[in-house]
Amino acid sequence: MPVKANPQNQMKLSQLRILVAVAEHENFTEAALHLEISQSAVSHAIAALEDHLGVVLFLRGRHGAHLTPIGAEIVKHAREIVHRADQISRAAELARGLQGGQVRIASFRSVATHLLPSVIADFHQRFPAIAVSLTEHDDYPQVEQALREGRADIGFTLIPVHDSDIAAWEILRDEFVALLPPSFHPKGESLSWQDLVTQPLIMPPRSDLMMQQLHNHIEAQGYPLQIGYEVGTDATIVSLVAQGLGATILPRLAAEPIPAAVQIYSLPVPLWRVIGVAVLAEALHPPAVYAFLDILKKRKAA
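The structure assignment produced for this chain is given below.
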């Protein structure tokens, strides 16, 4: 007898669970007690399954219910299906809860290097079953793009964010500092713009989006930067300053670690870049993401 193709009479996961229970208990009544459903529900499910498959699954009698040869073969597949279904449900539960799942973070290098290691360590200590992945990007627009494309749950970017799809709030302020070579001596008691512009400046490329704020700030003071060298790596810039080849202006986190011989000054008119943690504004985030954000907020409050 062929399997019936009536779409209203397809196999259901609940029927397969009942099939497995009856096979294990060899009794409709005991299977019903185990599943906490009525015996009639068990009988109806098995009858419907047999009707759909066109085979007899159990031999019923006074001594219980025993699998037929085809029933024994089918129940092997049913057990596998039930097991896989339970794994699917478990994976979803883990993702929804705090006993598993994953938090995907996108950041630019200075935050990834100096802020996130301790935060991730704290998070792992509290929630050891939750995996954390961290992707470094060259600049903050790439971080925001990763959020929009669903490749990251949490991102670190600069505030303000000019995108209504992204919600962000301040996590720290990173001061732009002037780094001068060991031989430098200011003309006055503090660093002046004139002191800076007389130094050969070693700077990141003008195209570096994170440095646009600095260029606009200094040009507003009437002292456009006179750049002698453009170098793409912050660590290389700091090393060149330490060798006495010039000065630079960098966010402190980007410059660290700063050699002891390098002289550090605040700018004559101070400037900070405001770093924020960001998520998609309308996204439904799993509890693991909120738990990570909570640790970040507590770290900021401390």
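Interim note for the steering committee: The first helix runs from residue 13 to 25. Residues 60 and 215 are 86 Å apart (CA to CA).
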